[in-house]
C-alpha cells in the first residue's frame, strides 16, 4: 500500500485518540522535544555518512516529530498541521520573489541578501519586533552551532571583518592569552576560571575562522570526531592482533599504533 502525507496525519490522530496508544496519548510538546533533537541528529549522522537509505528513514522520523507536535497543538486549539504548511508556504513564496514574482537575481549571494532584506521588513511589521539581534538566536541550539549563529547574525549588520586574515590573527591572539594564563598556574592556584574564559574565546574565534573560510564549524568538528573514532577503532584492532591490552603499550607504543592507523584508516 502506498501511503501519503495525509495518512501520516491520520495515523497520529488515531494514536492520540481516546482509544489510541497510551504512550502517544501521554506525550506533550515538552516530552517530545528530546526526540526531535535525537531524530534530527540521526539524520545528520546519516547525511554525513552519505547513507541515502538511512537518510530517507531518518527524514521520516523527523517528519513524524513535526506531525506529532502539530497534532498535540491541534488538540489544545492552538494550530494544526495545515497551519504549519500554510505558514511555511507563504514564507517561502514571499522570500522568493525572483521565482514567484517579477524580481530579478543572478547569483546565490544576491538571493541571500534579498532574503535578509525581506526578513527585516517582516520584522518591522510585527507588533512585538525583537529588541536585539540576539533575541533571534535559539537558546536550545547546540553550543557550537549557537556560536556560529551569533556570529552570522552580527556579521549581517556589519559587525565583522571583511576578510579572513584578521580573524585568524585574532584567534592566534586568543591562543597567546590562553598560554599566558596557563603560565600562571601553580599548585596553589589552578587558575581554572581564567583558563576557561580564555579557552572559550579561542573556540568562539575559531568558529568565526570557519565561517570566513566558507564552512560550518559544527560540521567540521563532526568530521574530526568521526575521523578520530575511526582511527582509534583501528588502533584497538591492531592491538588485538598483537594480543595485548591498550594500557600494555604505554604512550609511545600507542602512538606507533596511531601512526599505523592513520595510514590504514584514512
Protein described:
- This protein has twelve helices and no strands.
- It is mostly helical.
- It has three domains: 90 residues, Helix Hairpins (Orthogonal Bundle); 86 residues, Helix Hairpins (Orthogonal Bundle), CATH 1.10.287; 46 residues.
- The longest helix is centred in the C-terminal third of the chain and has 25 residues.
- The two termini are 43 Å apart.
- The model has no long low-confidence stretch (mean pLDDT 91).
Major beta-sheet overview: none
The beta-strand count equals 0
The string of secondary-structure elements, in order, is: HHHHHHHHHHHH
- The average pLDDT score comes to 91
Give the CATH level 1 class of the largest domain.
Mainly Alpha
- What CATH calls the topology of the largest domain is Helix Hairpins
Amino acid at each position: 500500500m502506498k501511503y501519503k502525507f495525509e495518512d501520516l496525519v491520520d495515523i497520529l490522530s488515531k494514536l492520540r485518540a481516546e482509544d489510541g496508544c497510551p504512550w502517544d496519548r501521554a506525550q506533550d510538546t515538552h516530552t517530545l522535544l528530546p526526540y526531535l533533537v535525537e531524530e534530527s541528529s540521526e539524520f545528520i549522522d546519516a547525511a554525513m555518512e552519505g547513507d541515502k537509505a538511512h537518510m530517507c528513514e531518518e527524514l521520516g522520523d523527523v517528519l513524524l516529530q513535526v506531525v506529532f507536535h502539530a497534532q498535540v497543538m491541534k488538540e489544545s486549539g492552538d494550530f494544526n498541521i495545515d497551519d504549519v504548511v500554510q505558514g511555511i508556504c507563504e514564507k517561502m513564496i514571499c522570500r522568493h520573489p525572483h521565482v514567484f514574482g517579477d524580481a530579478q537575481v543572478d547569483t546565490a549571494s544576491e538571493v541571500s541578501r534579498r532574503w535578509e532584506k525581506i526578513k527585516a521588513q517582516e520584522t518591522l511589521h510585527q507588533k512585538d519586533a525583537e529588541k536585539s539581534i540576539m533575541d533571534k538566536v535559539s537558546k536550545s541550539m547546540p553550543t557550537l552551532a549557537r556560536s556560529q549563529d551569533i556570529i552570522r547574525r552580527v556579521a549581517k549588520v556589519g559587525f565583522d571583518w571583511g576578510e579572513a586574515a584578521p580573524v585568524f590573527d585574532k584567534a592566534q591572539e586568543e591562543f597567546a592569552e590562553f598560554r599566558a594564563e596557563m603560565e600562571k598556574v601553580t599548585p596553589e592556584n589552578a587558575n581554572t576560571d581564567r583558563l576557561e574564559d580564555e579557552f572559550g574565546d579561542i573556540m568562539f574565534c575559531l568558529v568565526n575562522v570557519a565561517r570566513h573560510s566558507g564552512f560550518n564549524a559544527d560540521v567540521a568538528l563532526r568530521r574530526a570526531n568521526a575521523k578520530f573514532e575511526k582511527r582509534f577503532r583501528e588502533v584497538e584492532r591492531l592491538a588485538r592482533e598483537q594480543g595485548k591490552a591498550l594500557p600494555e603499550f604505554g604512550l609511545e607504543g600507542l602512538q606507533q599504533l596511531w601512526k599505523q592507523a592513520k595510514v590504514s584508516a584514512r
